[in-house]
Amino acid sequence: MRLVLLGPPGAGKGTQAKELSARLGIPAISTGDIFRANVGQGTPLGLQAKTYMDAGEYVPDAVTNAMVKDRIAQPDCTGGFLLDGYPRTLAQVAELDAMLAERGERLDAVLELTADTDEVVQRLLGRAAVEGRADDTEDVIRRRLEVYAEQTAPLARVYADRGLLRRVDGMGAVAEVTSRLVGALHSA
Ligand code: ADP
After folding, report:
1. 36 C-alpha to ligand 1 centroid (Å)
2. Which atom of ligand 1 is found nearest the CA of 92?
3. Alpha helices for 73-168 (secondary structure H)
4. Is residue 23 within 8 Å of 3, Cβ to Cβ?
5. 36, 144, 166, 180: which is the annotated catalytic residue?
6. Which of 4, 74, 155, 158 has the fewest CB atoms within 10 Å, i.e. is most exposed?
7. How far apart are CA 72 and CA 83, in angstroms?
8. What is the atom index within ligand 1 of the atom nearest the CA of 57?
9. Average pLDDT per consecutive 10 residues, the chain (188 residues; last block may be shorter)
10. Domains by residue range for the chain, with CATH
């Protein structure tokens, strides 16, 4: 299966992506994780991405698209993949369409995890205390939510129009949310 996981920061995409990846036997590809790994290793890609990430802004599309194109061309993606955190802009949607078309592939479903704003801010502040992510400060969290509302929320409509969107409540226990996602996939 080729899947996209959509949802605001703090909705639990990363956690659920790992669960689904294990259950479905497909790699979970998190653009945020790839960027953070590159920042950690001080690669040129990391240096390019860091300023944007620290400010809660999106890394430029050209950088992100090239990275994803390269990643889905790896052999472990032949049988499918789950994209976590990509696409996030309409331009990325168009680019992903082109990448998949070139490969003779298509998306099977787009899962949207929904969450209310107060809850996600609390979750992210809690995570900041544990993981110390540079972009988990209150100001940057608010900016990430704004950028999501402006640039990424409109993607749900695009995928709904294609009949691909499955909306799933991201609130509740991890296992509960995973069951909802799996249920949504079965109806896909
Ligand atoms: P979250 O969903 O909690 O914001 P991520 O780990 O998915 O966290 O992303 C962290 C940061 O990485 C984003 O704020 C952004 O700067 C960058 N990033 C991740 N995915 C993309 C993308 N598809 N396009 C542009 N920037 C991205």
Report:
1. 9
2. 23
3. 90-103, 117-131, 138-147, 154-161
4. no
5. 144
6. 74
7. 9
8. 16
9. 96 96 97 96 96 96 96 96 98 98 97 92 89 88 94 97 97 96 89
10. 2-186 (3.40.50.300)
